[in-house]
């Protein structure tokens, strides 16, 4: 059985009863058990088989019987959920996150929970309590798949499931999508309920996901989008039939390329491929033009993100006190118990971020750090919204390179790092729908570009995204099996 088919193809086999959800689930579980990318926190074998056994009569819903995996920072009923952190070891939630509940209702089969950078902080796929997650495109296991949604990226890119759920606070789905040859999509802030997603930085957090083509991405949004009374920040805005916008005419559309982001990338092969794609889009009647953004503002993206996200993370994670969830340590007082749990439970990166967060929130530092960062965030959002008043989308290379090696270190004050490696956070600052999709290969490793549109205009992303997909021809690709 070919488990690497996309959602639509699997659906056709399922409705024709050429395969059953149970057979498919078993085949996917076998593949996942053999996986060597260290991508799972938990394979839900028993639970998935039981769920799939109850799927008897096909519905016309495209997700019926379709296997998926979910990042382990989403609450899953009766299934251990760790956030890849020792502080939550042994925690078994009593409810499903809204996204899991919605997918289950459609008959999609949860195969397992995937690794992440601890508590979704980080981008290397190295900081979870199980260690490194590997890029399936590199069998020597020397390269990152990126993070923080590393496990979900690896399993989708390996070709075991046609889609996987992640979360994106700075770029945690859209960056690994570039390194793993996937379509990674984050809709507008508030479009998908975050009920049951462990909060990292609430003003920046989004539910996001991976698929292997743009149409499948639209299928998933149709299921996940919409108001949820359990998440007061979820939007009441009307949702669309997103699949209807894939492969629609795009001539006359206007796309902006931010010149300073483009210029911050030194890899000539990536730029060449990106230029080719822009030229092909022009050939389809799309207007593609350079626009400008203040380089100083772009160099401020990462520091501003860091101050805001660490501050919010420090506050959000204060509930992890070693009393309510996870292992309990003996101690003389509440603060003693808490100190032991947090000292033992959190890894280095988390502790460092809490120091930055606490420092930024200190009364005497707030104006200088937290409030100032908020102001700069707004300048960035205003600027991109202005660009989007004149253009239908902003298109830029998603990352400066193909998947880096684990021991790669970059110059952290270069434009290559500050801008090329961190610009995707603009989508989180402004809450805009943003999609990374593959545009090329270098040394057998994929790389991607990103398209971002106006808030709540997801249909435009699918329109432009499918146009880009049609010019690159990179659709339904996976490691070891470019089709
Ligand atoms: N890489 C970013 C960070 O280090 C983004 C994380 C995310 O989006 N969850 O925080």
Describe this structure in words.
- The protein has 483 residues and is of the alpha/beta class.
- It is 39% helix and 13% strand.
- The chain is built from 17 helices and eleven strands.
- It has helices at residues 7-15, 21-34, 45-53, 98-105, 150-157, 174-180, 214-224, 259-263, 268-283, 295-299, 301-316, 334-345, 348-361, 363-390, 415-420, 425-430, 458-472, and strands at 40-43, 67-71, 109-114, 163-168, 183-186, 206-211, 254-258, 287-291, 393-397, 434-442, 445-452.
- An eleven-stranded mixed β-sheet has the order 1-3-2-4-6-5-10-11-9-7-8, sandwiched between helices.
- The structure holds glutamine (GLN).
- Glutamine binds at residues 120-123, 148, 168-172, 200, 309.
What's the SSE blueprint?
Layout: H1 7-15, H2 21-34, E1 40-43, H3 45-53, E2 67-71, H4 98-105, E3 109-114, H5 150-157, E4 163-168, H6 174-180, E5 183-186, E6 206-211, H7 214-224, E7 254-258, H8 259-263, H9 268-283, E8 287-291, H10 295-299, H11 301-316, H12 334-345, H13 348-361, H14 363-390, E9 393-397, H15 415-420, H16 425-430, E10 434-442, E11 445-452, H17 458-472
Parallel strand pairs: 2-3, 2-4, 7-8, 7-9
Antiparallel strand pairs: 1-3, 4-6, 5-6, 5-10, 9-11, 10-11
Helix pairs in contact: 2-3, 7-17, 11-13, 11-14
Residues 120-123, 148, 168-172, 200, 309 line the site of glutamine.
């Amino acid at each position: 059985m070919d488990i690497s088919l996309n959602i639509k193809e699997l659906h056709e086999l399922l409705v024709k009863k050429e395969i059953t959800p149970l057979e498919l689930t078993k085949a996917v579980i076998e593949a996942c058990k053999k996986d060597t990318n260290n991508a799972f926190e938990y394979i839900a074998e028993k639970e998935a088989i039981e769920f799939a056994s109850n799927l008897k009569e096909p519905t016309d819903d495209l997700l019926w019987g379709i296997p998926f995996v979910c990042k382990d920072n989403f609450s899953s009923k009766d299934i251990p959920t760790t956030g890849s952190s020792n502080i939550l070891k042994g925690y078994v939630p009593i409810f499903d996150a809204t996204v899991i509940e919605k997918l289950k209702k459609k008959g999609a089969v949860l195969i397992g929970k995937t690794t992440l950078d601890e508590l979704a902080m980080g981008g290397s796929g190295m900081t979870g309590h199980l260690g490194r997650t590997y890029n399936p495109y590199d069998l020597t296991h020397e390269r990152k798949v990126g993070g923080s949604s590393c496990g979900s990226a690896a399993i989708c890119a390996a070709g075991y499931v046609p889609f996987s759920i992640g979360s994106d606070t700075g770029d945690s789905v859209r960056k690994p999508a570039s390194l793993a040859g996937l379509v990674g999509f984050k809709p507008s802030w508030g479009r998908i309920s975050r009920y049951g997603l462990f909060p990292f930085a609430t003003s920046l957090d989004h539910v996001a996901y991976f698929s292997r083509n743009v149409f499948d991405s639209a299928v998933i949004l149709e299921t996940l989008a919409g108001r949820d009374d359990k998440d007061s920040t979820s939007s009441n805005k009307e949702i669309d039939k997103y699949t209807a916008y894939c492969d629609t005419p795009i001539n006359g559309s206007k796309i902006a390329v931010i010149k300073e982001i483009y210029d911050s990338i030194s890899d000539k092969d990536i730029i060449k491929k990106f230029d080719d794609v822009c030229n092909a889009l022009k050939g389809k009647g799309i207007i593609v033009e350079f626009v400008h953004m203040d380089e100083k503002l772009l160099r401020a993206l990462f520091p501003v993100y860091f101050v805001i996200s660490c501050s919010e993370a420090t506050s959000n994670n204060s509930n992890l006190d070693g009393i309510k969830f996870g292992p309990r340590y003996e101690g003389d007082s509440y603060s003693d118990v808490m100190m032991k749990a947090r000292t033992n439970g959190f890894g280095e990166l988390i502790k460092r971020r809490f120091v930055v967060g606490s420092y930024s929130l200190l009364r005497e530092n707030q104006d200088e750090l937290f409030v100032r960062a908020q102001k700069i965030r707004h300048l960035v959002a205003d600027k991109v919204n202005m660009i989007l008043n004149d253009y239908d989308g902003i298109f830029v290379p998603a990352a400066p390179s193909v998947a880096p090696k684990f021991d790669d270190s970059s110059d952290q004050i270069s434009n290559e790092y500050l801008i090329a490696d961190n610009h995707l956070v603009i989508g989180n600052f402004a809450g805009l729908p943003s999609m990374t999709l593959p545009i090329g290969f270098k040394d057998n490793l994929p790389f991607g570009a990103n398209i971002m549109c106006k808030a709540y205009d997801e249909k435009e992303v699918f329109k432009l995204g499918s146009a880009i997909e049609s010019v690159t021809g990179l659709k339904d690709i996976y490691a070891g099996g470019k089709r």
